[in-house]
């Protein structure tokens, strides 16, 4: 964990890109730009395309706070996560919300479901309401989102990741190192034909970083990486079932499987049992996430537990410190590297 001095924050509203600036860049009237945001069907396709290009180039965010809503400014914190319904993010959301609410701040939540485009839309909408701060997940963003985050005159926090070279406050861990941890653990248990099963959600790029950590470690151990990609966007249990059936039908089948998350791992484990496999004797299973059902499976699921709750609490704390709401001893810690834990149960 390192201390780095924060760059000075811009004064709210200073140098803000205006609707008129967008109009000038697009070569249309301000009224046309306003209509683009409020009644896009009344704007010609040519003008919509020119305005959209100008909006992305300038990182423009329409200011939605006006009139009677102005009093809400500064009491809302926006957070964009990949999946609101996913159990892996539940503790992060709860820890973040609980910490904020004790100081009179409220959470405004949006889900991108691993879509860079949906994340971009959510970030633009949130910034339009002039929140006190913005929290996003990972470092995988569209070019337009990157520009909006860089131009935002509020604290920005990236969670569930750790990229020290990036500007926003970093709170999370290295997904690459999680992959290294998984491969080394199974190798240490005597497994040699170890495969990695990707997430069926195509936009889960953090899972691909875990895959890369696994693959590099396998190669360094003199072993051949085996990667299975389920059918795109199929349900998690189905993805796990598909992986187990295909990999176990191979002539030189794996003796251990690392799954992108516990949902997929559970699908694989159950499919293996239905096929008459003994787990872990015939094939070990290792997940990621430590979902609530992991220890209830039979055999219980070995997995890697991310610091989900700690991420939420620490992210809220860093936001509140940045805003001067809670005390800050010394300089704000911009880099916050947390640790994942390997939970050894019966499946591996």
Secondary structure layout:
Elements: H1 19-26, H2 30-38, H3 45-58, E1 76-81, H4 90-101, E2 106-111, H5 116-128, E3 133-137, H6 143-151, E4 156-159, E5 169-172, H7 175-188, E6 194-197, H8 205-220, E7 226-228, H9 236-248, E8 256-259, H10 262-274, E9 284-288, E10 302-305, H11 308-322, E11 335-337, E12 341-343
Parallel strand pairs: 1-2, 1-3, 3-4, 4-5, 5-11, 6-7, 6-8, 8-9, 9-10
Antiparallel strand pairs: 10-12
Helix pairs in contact: 1-2, 1-3, 4-11, 5-6, 7-8, 9-10
Instruction: Give the strand content.
Output: 5-15%
Give the CATH superfamily of the largest domain: Response regulator
Rg from alpha-carbon coordinates: 23 Å
Which word captures the global form? globular
How many beta-strand segments? 12
Residue runs with pLDDT of under 50 for 5 or more positions: 1-14, 67-73
- CATH architecture classification name of the largest domain: 3-Layer(aba) Sandwich
Question: Any idea of the CATH topology of the largest domain?
Answer: Rossmann fold
The H-and-E topology, N to C, reads as: HHHEHEHEHEEHEHEHEHEEHEE
Chain-averaged pLDDT: 90
Euclidean distance between termini CA atoms? 31 Å
Question: How many strands, which pairing sense, and closed or not: the largest β-sheet?
Answer: 6 strands, parallel
Helix count?
A: 11
CATH class of the largest domain equals Alpha Beta
Cross-sheet strand order for the largest sheet: 2-1-3-4-5-11
The number of domains: 2
Structural class: alpha/beta
Helix content: 25-40%
């Amino acid at each position: 964990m390192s201390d780095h001095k924060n760059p000075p924050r811009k004064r709210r509203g200073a140098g803000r890109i205006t609707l008129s600036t967008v109009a000038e860049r697009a070569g249309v009237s301000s009224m046309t730009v306003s209509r683009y945001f409020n009644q896009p069907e009344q704007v010609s396709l040519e003008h919509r395309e020119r305005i959209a290009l100008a909006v992305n180039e300038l990182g423009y965010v329409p200011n939605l706070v006006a009139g009677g809503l102005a009093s809400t400014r500064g009491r809302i914190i926006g957070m964009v996560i990949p999946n609101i319904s996913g159990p892996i993010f539940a503790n992060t959301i709860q820890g973040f919300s609980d910490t904020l609410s004790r100081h009179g701040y409220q959470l405004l939540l949006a889900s991108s479901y691993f879509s860079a485009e949906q994340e971009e839309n959510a970030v633009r909408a949130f910034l339009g309401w002039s929140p006190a701060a913005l929290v996003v997940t990972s470092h995988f963003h569209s070019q337009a989102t990157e520009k909006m985050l860089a131009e935002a005159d509020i604290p920005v926090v990236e969670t569930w990741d750790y990229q020290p070279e990036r500007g926003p406050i970093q709170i999370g861990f290295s997904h690459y190192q999680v992959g290294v941890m998984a491969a080394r653990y199974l190798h240490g248990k005597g497994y040699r034909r170890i495969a990695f099963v990707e997430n069926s959600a195509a936009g889960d790029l953090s899972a691909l970083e875990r895959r890369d950590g696994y693959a590099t470690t396998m190669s360094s151990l003199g072993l051949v990486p085996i990667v299975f990609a389920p059918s795109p966007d199929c349900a998690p249990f189905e993805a796990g079932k598909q992986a187990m059936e295909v990999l176990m039908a191979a002539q030189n089948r794996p003796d251990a499987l690392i799954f992108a998350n516990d949902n997929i791992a559970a699908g694989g484990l159950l499919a293996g049992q239905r096929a008459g496999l003994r787990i872990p004797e015939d094939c070990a299973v290792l997940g990621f996430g430590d979902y609530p059902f992991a220890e209830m499976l039979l055999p219980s699921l070995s997995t890697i537990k991310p610091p989900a709750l700690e991420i939420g609490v620490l992210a809220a704390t860093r936001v509140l410190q940045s805003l001067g709401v809670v005390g800050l001893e010394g300089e704000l810690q911009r880099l916050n590297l947390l640790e994942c834990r390997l939970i050894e149960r019966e499946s591996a």
